[in-house]
Amino acid sequence: MCVYDRSHCCCKADVKEFILSILRSSPSMRDSRNYLSSFGRPTAPPFPNPSEQLSGATPALSLPPQPGTDPTPATDASNPQPENPLVASLLDPIVRHPALVKIQGPFTDLQLNSICQGMAHLQKLGLVSVIVLDRDDLPATEPADTAAAQRQKKMVLRDLEKVVASLGRLGAGARPVLSTVARIAGKSGEGDSGGERVEGEVFVEEEGLDHVRRAVTEGEIPVLLPVALDSGCRTRRVGADAVLKALAESMAAAPVGKGSGTGSSVVDLTPLRLLIINREGGIPSYARQGLPHLSINLASELSFIQDTYLPHWSESHPTALSNLRLSDACLAHMPRDASALLVSHRSPAAMIANLITNKPAHSASLPHALLVESEGRLTRDTPTLIRKGLPVRVLRSLDEVDRPALNRLLEKSFRRTLDQDAFYTRLETDMDFLIVIGDYAGAAIVTTEPDSTPEGICYLDKFAVLPSHQGDGTVDFLWVALRDETYGLGLLDAANPSEGSLSGQGRGRDLVWRSRADNPVNKWYAERSNGFITTPDGKWKMFWCDAEERLRERARQGGREFGGGWLSRMVEMEEEGRLARWEPVIGAIGSVWAK
């Protein structure tokens, strides 16, 4: 017996797995709104967001206020409630968007079926995969020997047949594209359209997208071979990466056109995701002891990751760096909030979570001990999320600060008017450094508060991100840079590549900050801190992160591993004296907001 969705036939077990995959992604209200804005019904009412309104505490992460809405009318049998827009959009997306997908085999039939199940689920959610097949066991280019070239083409063609058949069995319409979509620039260095091209460059012209456009318009998944037409009109096998880069450029430049069939109003070929499905998993990270990066900010980390890639990773992850470069090239043509996901074939559910939340499996700003040392939290198969990101700078002098830009950031983030005289007078004497991400899309201001000790208190005075950049990874990238300059300083994994950073050189310091007791973002702060208390007046919560270098050194001296119960017991031994010293100093810091 089968149950039907609105477009395909699938068995109950598949429907159940589909629903469970959505539930496991645990989307927040913001995630749901972002999904609906891209894939949902254009006339759907906005989701309310009362719990994410922040109080403008110091410091705070803030969201834009929701516009006012009319009171909800009373309901009766003649006036039924409108359907839930999130549920309706999940079951019947109106707007379809493509994702570029590289299936990097070879895979067994069982593995391919698991991958195709993920593609089928994404299709139901409105993301139509444009698949390019690849095989690690074949050279990137076609050999000169004709017989060998034919054998290799047959291997890739068999993979295409398997993928199309598997998608069909799962109720996902798939279209094998046997025609040559891409071309190779000849000696003239020009494409047919007259645009200048480097000799040997793979490109896709507008007419080459016809097969892809028709498939996406009709909600079918096009499956492409990694081939291109050379200047002599011969089909050559080329690297899948070259085809994907050419598709990203051409699809992003393609005009938006009207779709056809039920459920599609327009077809925009601009890819929103790049999915690289391989056997390696994510890109190994020095900071994670060889386990994968959770998220990567290409604007500030690309060169650093390539320069510090350890030799033995080339054996366990031979294509990690080439996939990183592929992500950089494709994302350059994709929207700012687009992302690339490097995911193992063992983690198909991660693709569902990434589509709905556009976030990594775990926040990169969570404590290292929690991520690395918690059993099962981070594994080789944990995906790596890659974003264009923004450059990060560390400013050590107030003279380097663009004050008007910082003022706009703080006032938009906190939704309050800054008392500029009081604010900058304080920074002139107390500022330690200021981390700026992008063109003041976010900032973290750290001061040194004088107390009875020579070093003073390392205090996070402001942490702010523009509402337009919340949900695109900026918050996590900013916090990671903050960690590397304060409580993570002195460790090899704190070698922050940001301009003006200390690159891990120095001694870590305890970081302290406060937030209003009723601030909804306190849960986020608590997850990233070693502890917090409520001040005696009940007005504030004071948080702190312990210097990791000191904790690790004492753990080694005690013959115990860093993290877990030892961390908790050791912190308790020190807390009483520190808190008694910190609380009056932090509590006495005056407001810099206009009355």
What labels describe this entry?
alpha/beta; Carbamate kinase; Aminopeptidase; 18 helices; transit peptide
Q: How would you name the CATH homologous superfamily of the largest domain?
A: Gcn5-related N-acetyltransferase (GNAT)
Major sheet description? 8 strands, mixed
Principal-axis shape: elongated
Q: Numbering strands along the chain, what is their spatial order in the largest sheet?
A: 5-8-4-3-13-15-16-14
Keywords: Acyltransferase, Amino-acid biosynthesis, Mitochondrion, Transferase, Transit peptide
Protein name: Amino-acid acetyltransferase, mitochondrial
Function: N-acetylglutamate synthase involved in arginine biosynthesis.
Subcellular location: Mitochondrion
Describe this protein's structure:
Pfam families: NAT. With 595 residues, the protein is α/β, with parallel strands linked by helices. Helix content is 35%, strand content 18%. Strands 5-8-4-3-13-15-16-14 form an 8-stranded mixed β-sheet, sandwiched between helices. The protein is elongated.
